[in-house]
Amino acid sequence: MEEHDGGAAPPWRVLLVDDHPLFLEGLAAAVGLDGEFEVVGRAATGEEALAEAARTRPDLVVMDLGLPGRSGVETTRLLLQAQPAARVLVMTMSEDDDNLLAAVRAGARGYLLKGAVREEILLALRTVGRGGAVFSPSMAERLARLFAAVSEGPAREAFPNLTGREREILDLLAQGLTYRQIAQRLVVADKTVRNHVGSIFAKLQVPDRAAAIVRARNAGLGSA
Questions:
Q1: CB environment 179-194: b (16+ within 10 A), e (fewer)
Q2: How many structural domains is the chain composed of?
Q3: Are 61 and 170 in the same domain?
Q4: CB atoms < 10 A from the CB of 122, how many?
Q5: For the chain, first and last CA: distance in Å?
Q6: Segments forming the whole domain that contains residue 135
Q7: Which letter does DSSP use for residue 223 in this model?
Q8: pLDDT 10s digits, 3-43
Q9: What is the pLDDT of residue 152?
Q10: Residues in a beta bridge with 92
């Protein structure tokens, strides 16, 4: 990782990760037109991002959370395990507290919403590149509140509105287990699992199992 202070320093090498082609194209243009940055790779999935990171060795990574397959949170975690010197800036549509906390726990240095203008994005990249952290005022306030909650007691789990058993079942769902496999794992009746799943859907306000799994994986569950 090059430490940049302006002048003749080489440009930061940037990897962009997003599954929306038009957004990715616009982001590449916005970043690439600035001489401080060089877009060295693009990826639309977590697997592509890990492969591109291994190939290009980026200084900075702009990461979407809502990726198909492997979530942006899990991709961030794995990427930083392989390349600890890289710095990740999350850029997403999600204002969800669980996603915010999961991204920070995975190692992200910043969290921007996709409504950010070009100047905000470039400033965020410079700040993260120089070792700082970037969060919008509202996100910073919420992050402080979330970590305050952590310090007041046991480590805060994702989805605090779920019971311990519901969170356990959601984690197993995110790992890909069927209702019957979950029932066998927990030594309970199939109907008991289905009742818990119905409660999980209601609390997370999701319509089905697939949507619940996406929420769970974005929050860092299902990685066991």
A1: beebbeeeeeeeeebe
A2: 2
A3: no
A4: 17
A5: 31
A6: 12-150
A7: -
A8: 555 445 779 999 999 999 999 999 999 998 888 999 999 99
A9: 46
A10: 113
